[in-house]
Design brief:
alpha+beta, globular, 6-stranded mixed beta sheet
Length: 985
């Protein structure tokens, strides 16, 4: 117990020592603190120093259904340097002039050029932690030169020589390198390496080559021996303190050692049948699952599309709040805060998402009808309760691995085991356990297999670990093994055995409503993963964005959430078969007049227990922390009244009061437990991304060039009227005056709705004539406020979306489509009459792309799935869409099967055929040709529907893909039946 206290809080340990020696009496405050630590040691399973540990178990294929987990007292606690201590050592060694000039330096991985400045993140350290700021420095010819040389790390002297080669003398060059190091434009090799096997070993290796005068190596070697010694933790830390006080006293931190415990276990096996039963029931609970998504990420995606449309843009540029889109609601300052603001949390309070639980009313009714009279605190869900729910989760698009965590329990010796579920979900099955891999080589091996399995699930991409140390002490939970083939390094050092991915090489684009993170260097999509339990929400925007991007594919989260009933005085335990979804809960209102003496407290507590029907043991819940309160203990009673006198409190039942743990020792003592079950889904997510490519073609046309770009801001109905009346007249006038080469339009909202018109002229001299004509035609509409703004802007071609070689052909297609849509709108003023025209055109595009029926069906199915995810994978919508198809099936068959006769629709389709044939002639594989056609088809169809419909275009797109998918499946079924019939004959 002493060692546990010492490792957790040295100051508390010293107070306890004074009490035990008789130097001071046991104060009320110390008694409460000791109670909390003792209860934590005996009841809470979350690993923490000597208090609780881990051990890997086995799932056995056996006919014996007995869970066999037997403890012994052979626990092993392993210690390593606290990360804050390690960071302090590295920082101090780096400042020593002798060491500094021997180290290797590379450019800050966050540096990028923006106009006449270089921007980069700086780390500012103080006594307790690190903070990060976005800084900038003016460009200079010498920095430009060095940035172009930044690919390789160089020694201090090599950087000096490089600058001397440009004409500086040695003194000038040395001072310049010093400034680059001081400003953190250059970063040394003495940097945290979170996925290294042993960070202290890495420091030793570097110092063996750089500490040529043997100034620090003797001290570091002494520390290394002490770190690997068998001294008890108290003596070990005292000896470490003595060593560092002699040579490097400035590196001392509050915590020098950090420890984790490998539990002493005789046997640790669970039958496979038990796990299969739990997994089957988890699957049945999927209708209760909620999809995890970030509101900030959704807002970012909308902002990105509005600003960059289909472009591929450098990640660092996009996340710059000043010139890009930024990320989140906490812009990063360009300089450090002054003392007035330092230490103030600038992150806004996150508004809690309003939850909806369709079963909670049913559960509460069932509780009052069946349980109150029987004095039963539990409500059981039935299969038919879940069958009536509609799941919004598509498990096949979720994370390939996740976990379930909870308590293994027994009601009695004759019943099947029960699992008290705390959480089921996550972006990786390894998130909660990676930091303990150094305790157990077998665990490390299994985590490496897990990383390989997750990589196999993304055959067209690279899964990369996010490596960043936001604050020094968080390194204790962020240290983890290298389980992936690549790492995204954010102001950190990559593991030597992986592919390092620098932020400079990362780009973003949006494809099929999905944010794609792309490495230009590796020419592939990067799937970021943070295989850690670290809460990244208070990190810098780069870190938060990369971590939030994990949740884009909506990993599942299966758990019971009380919604509108959450504040009721009592909420029953919720159970489904062998899964406890929620423990019984009591919400106790704040007590204004708290009793002072224990006798009065006991009397007051008895009244509360009667009112709330409280058991003798409950768990006080404060955020993620839980404290067992045993009301037979006076100290627990004092703690209870101390809390409830300040605020409303939440109590959960102590689940081990009514259920028994299967974990015991040879003497028959039972132990509380927490079990993590890793879960893998048999799936492969293919990333067929046709990447937006840079080009030497002109992509930006400013005012006065050959392209005129007009935005007409007006309401949706007004825009429709303009397209039916004044815009056709404007186009005809421009043609009559020989002012127009080609033109096209789209509808847009950023955020106000407007029409975007683009006109191409054969000579920039005609720019003024078109501007004058537009102003003449629409001045009266500005006066009567039907149009509230006309804006001339710069036209930025979406070359990244349509590819350089097909950009001009795409503009010609948009021109012909716009003419076709204008005639269609005029002939069918009601948008509800346009659906058959749209389906006919979509099918025509697929036919002119020379797709087979199976390929058309696969394309429609993929696009339908994309939009189904966007609209929530709602089975009720799918049911409704299937009903629409059945109602319109005959009309759809007639529309699509009828030969084309309208020249207005034939003209754009024939032009697309030219594009399709050109793609087919490319010297690339058949799969690559199909992918390229599919990519352009999805964009062309998207833009066509945008032009054809005044609003709800994405919903229309979803509906049309669903109808086409059903139609093609029907044709495939008919063809199969015909072939079978012919085969029989």
């Amino acid at each position: 117990m002493k060692q546990a206290l010492f490792l957790s809080s040295e100051s508390l340990y010293l107070e306890v020592e004074k009490w035990l020696s008789g130097e001071k009496t046991l104060s009320e405050k110390l008694a409460k603190t000791l109670y909390k630590y003792t209860v934590r040691l005996s009841s809470r399973c979350t690993p923490y120093g000597h208090f609780a540990g881990i051990r890997m178990g086995q799932i056995l294929e056996t006919q014996n259904n007995t869970i066999d987990i037997r403890r012994n007292q052979k626990d092993i606690v392993r210690y390593r340097p606290d990360m804050q201590f390690l960071v302090r050592i590295m920082q101090n060694l780096s400042k020593d002039p002798h060491v500094k000039t021997q180290l290797t330096y590379s450019f800050n991985s966050t540096i990028y050029r923006q106009g006449q400045h270089y921007k980069f993140y700086q780390q500012v350290s103080n006594a307790d932690n690190n903070t990060h700021y976005l800084s900038q420095t003016p460009t200079t010819p010498i920095i430009d030169y060095l940035v172009n040389e930044k690919q390789d790390s160089k020694t201090y002297l090599d950087w000096v020589s490089l600058i001397q080669s440009k004409g500086a003398d040695k003194d000038q060059a040395s001072k310049f390198v010093e400034n680059l190091i001081e400003s953190q434009i250059l970063v040394s090799e003495l940097h945290s390496q979170l996925t290294a096997e042993n960070n202290f070993d890495e420091i030793l290796k570097i110092m063996q080559t750089t500490d040529t005068k043997n100034i620090y190596l003797p001290t570091l070697n002494k520390l290394n021996k002490l770190l690997t010694s068998n001294y008890p933790v108290i003596e070990r830390q005292r000896r470490i303190e003595a060593v560092i006080n002699q040579k490097i006293p400035e590196t001392k931190t509050k915590n020098l050692l950090q420890g984790d415990m490998l539990l002493g276990i005789e046997t640790n096996t669970i039958p496979k049948n038990t796990i299969k039963r739990f997994l089957s029931q988890f699957e049945e609970l999927i209708p209760l699952a909620i999809s995890i998504h970030s509101k900030e990420l959704e807002q970012f995606k909308r902002s990105f599309i509005n600003k960059y449309e289909g472009q591929m843009v450098r990640l660092l540029e996009v996340l710059d709040h000043d010139t890009g889109v930024g990320y989140g609601s906490n812009p990063v300052a360009y300089s450090t805060q002054d003392n007035l603001l330092k230490g103030i949390n600038t992150h806004p309070v996150q508004q809690k998402q309003t939850l909806n639980n369709p079963l909670e009313d049913l559960v509460y009714r069932r509780y009052h009808i069946n349980c109150v009279k029987q004095n039963n605190r539990e409500v059981r869900l039935q299969e038919n309760d879940l069958q009536n729910l509609i799941s919004n989760i598509d498990i096949n698009t979720s994370s390939p691995t996740f976990y379930a965590i909870g308590n293994l329990l027994f009601e009695n010796s004759t019943t099947a085991p029960v699992f008290c579920l705390q959480a089921c979900g996550g972006t990786s099955a390894g998130n909660l356990i990676t930091r303990f891999s150094y305790l157990d080589n077998q665990l490390k091996t299994e985590l490496e297999k897990l990383g390989a399995l997750e990589q196999e699930s993304y055959p067209g991409a690279i899964v990369a670990e996010i490596v960043h140390l936001p604050e020094s002490r968080t390194g204790n939970i962020l240290q983890r093994p290298n389980i992936r083939k690549a790492e995204i390094v954010l102001m950190a050092k990559a593991n030597k055995d992986v592919i390092p991915i620098n932020l400079n090489e990362l780009y973003l684009f949006v494809k099929k409503n999905r944010i794609v993170l792309w490495s230009k260097k590796l020419d592939t999509e990067i799937i970021p993963r943070l295989s850690s339990a670290h809460n990244f929400q208070n990190g810098i925007n780069l870190y938060r964005f990369l971590a939030d991007l994990q949740f884009q594919d909506q990993p599942i989260s299966v758990k019971w959430e009380w919604a509108k009933l959450a504040k009721l005085p009592f909420l029953p335990r919720i159970r489904y078969k062998n899964i406890i979804l929620s423990r019984a809960r009591w919400n106790i209102s704040k007590i204004e007049n708290t009793p002072f003496c224990f006798k009065e407290k006991k009397k007051k507590l008895a009244g509360l227990k009667k009112i709330y029907d409280l058991p003798d043991k409950v768990v006080l819940v404060e955020g993620d922390n839980e404290l067992l309160l045993d009301f037979s203990n006076p100290i627990a009673v004092d703690i209870f009244f101390e809390k409830v006198s300040k605020e409303d409190i939440m109590l959960n039942e102590f689940i081990f009061s009514e259920y028994q743990s299967p974990v015991k020792d040879d003497e028959g003592n039972f132990y509380s437990n927490e079990v993590i079950i890793p879960i893998a889904i048999d799936m492969k997510q293919t990333q067929n991304n046709i990447t937006p490519r840079p080009t030497c073609k002109q992509s930006i046309y400013a005012l006065g060039s050959e392209w005129i770009y007009v935005k007409i801001y007006c309401g949706i109905r007004c825009a429709e009227n303009l397209l039916m009346d004044s815009i056709p007249k404007l186009i005809q006038t421009l043609k009559d005056k020989n002012l127009l080469k080609k033109w096209f339009f789209i509808r847009y909202k950023d955020p106000a709705p407007h029409l975007r018109l683009r006109f191409q002229v054969d000579s920039p001299d005609k720019f003024a004539s078109i501007v004058r004509l537009v102003n003449e035609i629409y001045s009266c509409k500005l006066s009567d406020h039907s149009i509230f703004n006309i804006q001339f802007d710069t036209y930025k071609r979406e070359i990244e979306r349509y590819t350089p070689e097909y950009m001009e052909l795409s503009e010609q297609l948009f021109h012909k489509e716009s003419e076709f849509v204008l005639s269609t709108i005029t002939q069918t003023p009601t948008s509800s009459d346009r659906w058959n025209i749209c389906l006919k055109y979509m099918d025509g595009l697929l036919n002119h792309a020379s797709l087979t029926l199976l390929e058309k069906n696969a394309f429609a199915e993929e696009m339908r799935s994309v939009f189904a995810r966007e609209f929530g994978n709602d089975k009720s919508k799918e049911k409704k869409l299937n009903q629409i198809f059945r109602e319109k099936k005959a009309n759809i068959e007639l529309t699509i099967s009828t030969e084309l006769s309208n020249s207005n629709i034939i003209i754009p389709l024939q032009h697309f055929k030219v594009i399709s044939k050109k793609i087919g002639c490319e010297e690339i594989s058949a799969d690559a040709i199909l992918d390229k056609k599919s990519s352009l088809l999805s964009s062309y169809i998207h833009m066509f529907i945008n032009r054809l419909y005044p609003s709800d275009q994405r919903l229309y797109e979803y509906v049309f893909y669903h109808l086409l998918n059903n139609y093609y499946q029907m044709l495939i079924g008919k063809r199969k039946s015909l072939n079978e019939s012919q085969a029989k004959n």
